[in-house]
Amino acid sequence: MLTPEQIEALRDAASHITDPINDYLIGDIARRISEAGQLTSTAAYEVWMAQQLGTSQRQVKKEVRKRLKVSNRELKKLMAQAAEVGYDFDLKRLPVQAVPFRANESLQQIVAAAVELAGKDLNNITQTLGMVDPFGKALPLQDVYRSCTDFAFKQVITGASDYNTAIRTACANIAKYGVRTIDYESGVHTSLEAAVRRNIMGGLGLMNEQIEQVNHDEMGCNGWEISAHANSAPDHEPIQGKQYSDAEYTALNNSLVRRIGTLNCGHVAFPIILGINSPQYSDAELTDLRRQNEVGITYQGIHYTGYEATQMQRKIERSIRMQKNRILVDKATGDIDKRTIDQIKLRQLNEEYRRFSQAAGLRTESERMWIAKTKEM
Question: Domain residue spans in the chain?
């Protein structure tokens, strides 16, 4: 079983798997937008664009592939580590002699299949990359490069905007939305970070469920216990920390809108022998977890339940990532004045993040990521 802290750390690690791709693409398109805004004639722009559409797009694909290899290596390491930690936890709780993780062939096959599938899914996601242009349209990479550079060039050459204003406007949505994955049929687009996190955590959840089922069957278990943690979401709070027979757990999980085990929440179910394994939490402890969640905190005059505080913390983290994107753009375009302002805003956001996290008693992202790098996860 993975603990709630380990799941949270895995979620953070999954979010950063494709950071190298995001950072490269934002910097590259911002630099090219800046170049387009410096051209002084339509003829010069058309020559420049003809070169860009060929050479630059091949270079972009090459750079994305290179960074994808790094992401795949990190993904493989992440999944293998998660599988071993979860398996070892079960061995400590169950009174049965079991095969060590690395010697357990059936588990190694599960992990290998999960890693292969996750790698393919990650590769598929990178085939649908795009960004949002100055008009608010999510476009594939080649199209968004053209739209943004056209916008910057036309704004400057027609005198509609000065150079700095044109470049900042052309890059605004690039920084705001970052790299996106686009469903070309529906037009719906999602941040690359969110799409990859959801995909990886779903794959980890499926792998974890398969490993837990193997443990359940090989060790003669007849029930399941749902893990418990502080600040639970309202839909899972009434069922967390309790033990269920096999039939009860199957019926319960099938009835949930958000199934236990997807790892997009902090809960997992682990195998138990009813009457032998004591619950990890007593009824009194579960009641106290619920009470603490309801009490929550009051910060700057606003009350948050414990769960709402975790969501607010995530919101600030997204704001910090957006601000970092703005600084990537500033560096690529050489906009010193805006970079200075954006760095000040980033420091202010980081300070607010630290204050809020401390007031809510929540680990910061760097503290959660540290957990992912320790031996325990």
Answer: 4-219, 221-281
